[in-house]
Write a structure and sequence with these properties.
It is a single chain. By secondary structure, the chain is mainly α. The protein is about 75% helix and about 0% strand.
Length: about 230
């Protein structure tokens, strides 16, 4: 009986913690940066949530999903406030920790959260313009390309492609795009996106369709740019 009671208590605590994390996500999305005590507090929250994520068992899907959802909200808010400087000291090891979560998880929601996080970090690093930031962008681009080409989940593929378009939207990162053969590889991925069946993705049909349209435009734009 005691074991059962202990198990029930742990389950209830997990539910409370996950609910709290989801509430945190909603609060971050709704409030302005200043209402959240400014960028420094947001960065502190980013670090604390990251620590919690890396300490959480990847098989605890609901908690990992709740944490990554909140992490995405935080980094998105930091991007809105143009706080690239907080990522100027990010190392390859730091980035690999995030990539590992994305690769190891079998849950589409978690993968999408992590893809979004990597994409936003890539955009922030693009504003720093240092050799180390360029190296990290290259890693992010390569990871997102791999996900786009190997995943069988159309939603995940669309989100990875959408993140790639955002990361490499600006002309000043074109040299990195060329290093990873971005446009050439996207041309190979495009037919998969065109042929992919989206009937089973009722909640994500708009994302998949929009990404398909944006990808075609992105490839055309980059091809014209490369011909100049």
């Amino acid at each position: 009986m005691r074991k059962q009671e202990t198990s029930d208590l742990h389950n209830r605590l997990d539910v409370v913690r996950n609910t709290a994390l989801l509430c945190l996500n909603n609060i971050i999305q709704k409030l302005k940066v200043d209402d959240l005590e400014g960028p420094s507090k947001l960065n502190e929250l980013w670090l604390n949530l990251g620590k919690l994520l890396f300490e959480t068992d990847i098989t605890d899907v609901e908690q990992v999903e709740a944490i990554t959802r909140s992490l995405r909200a935080v980094v998105r808010k930091l991007a809105e406030a143009k706080c690239s400087s907080y990522f100027s000291h990010m190392t390859e090891s730091d980035l690999e920790l995030l990539i590992n979560i994305c690769n190891k998880s079998q849950d589409s929601r978690i993968k999408v959260h992590m893809i979004s996080i990597l994409g936003i970090i890539g955009c922030l690093l693009g504003n720093i313009n240092t050799p180390s930031s360029a190296h990290l962008i290259k890693i992010i681009g390569s990871v997102l390309l791999e996900i786009s080409s190997k995943s069988v989940d159309m939603w995940v593929i669309a989100e990875a492609l959408d993140a790639l378009i955002d990361v490499f939207a600006e002309d000043y990162v074109d040299h990195i795009a060329q290093e990873i053969n971005l446009v050439e590889k996207l041309n190979h991925i495009l037919p998969t996106l065109k042929k992919g069946k989206i009937k089973g993705y009722r909640d994500h049909q708009v994302v998949i369709t929009t990404t398909k349209t944006n990808l075609i435009r992105f490839i055309k734009y980059k091809n014209k740019l490369n011909r100049k």
